[in-house]
Specification:
Elements lengths: L2 E3 L9 H9 L14 E3 L2 E9 L2 H9 L2 H13 L3 E7 L7 H4 L10 H4 L8 H10 L9 H15 L2 E5 L4 H10 L1
Parallel strand pairs: 3-4, 4-5
Antiparallel strand pairs: 1-2, 2-3
Helix pairs in contact: 1-8, 2-3
């Protein structure tokens, strides 16, 4: 098996993925892909696009929506099944779990304004509110709806995994 890796993937971010490919004896040349990040030479009609977490997905579907939509449309026009693999730990395993997601970046500015934080999101929200901040709605339901819409319109398949399992999941998805 040979898996082509997109040249725009950051080398430090994919060290563990490449190590898994090496462990399983999979060649992984690096060159630019039309869409996505990983493609099996034996089945170039299935491509995996890796996202480091739901925060990146949220950014792609809101701030970079036009670019993301163009890539999904290009994959669809070329007959490519685009699988988005989101590395977001053990809590998120489905779009149903995305609905419960709270974007941790919403409360990072607590530290900027001197609001004490302990690292736990629930406590940080409570402290934020105690210092006069207003809790904004959880973006999870809106994000899940956007992800479902992208699936319906462009055939995107959403998959989830832990960062330690990304290499194995990419191999499974590309051989499946």
């Amino acid at each position: 098996m040979i898996i082509q890796v997109d040249s725009r993937e950051k080398s430090r971010a994919i060290k563990k993925i490449e190590a898994e490919f090496d462990r399983q004896g999979i060649q992984h040349p690096i060159s630019k892909l039309i869409v996505g990040d990983y493609m099996n030479y034996d089945n170039p009609r299935v491509i995996v696009d890796r996202k480091q977490n739901l925060t990146e997905v949220c950014s792609n579907l809101t701030q970079q929506h036009d670019r993301f939509r163009r890539e999904a449309l290009k994959a669809q026009e070329l007959g490519i099944k685009l699988i988005i693999l989101v590395e977001d730990g053990t809590k998120v395993k489905s779009l149903g779990d995305v609905e419960k997601w709270i974007n941790p970046r919403r409360y990072q500015y607590c530290r900027k304004y001197g609001i004490p934080t302990d690292g736990g999101i629930e406590n940080n929200i409570w402290l934020f509110e105690q210092h006069g901040g207003q809790k904004q709605p959880t973006p999870g339901p809106r994000l899940a709806k956007m992800m479902r819409t992208m699936s319906e319109k462009y055939g995107i398949q959403w998959e989830f995994c832990c960062k330690n399992d990304t290499g194995k999941r990419i191999i499974e998805l590309l051989t499946g």
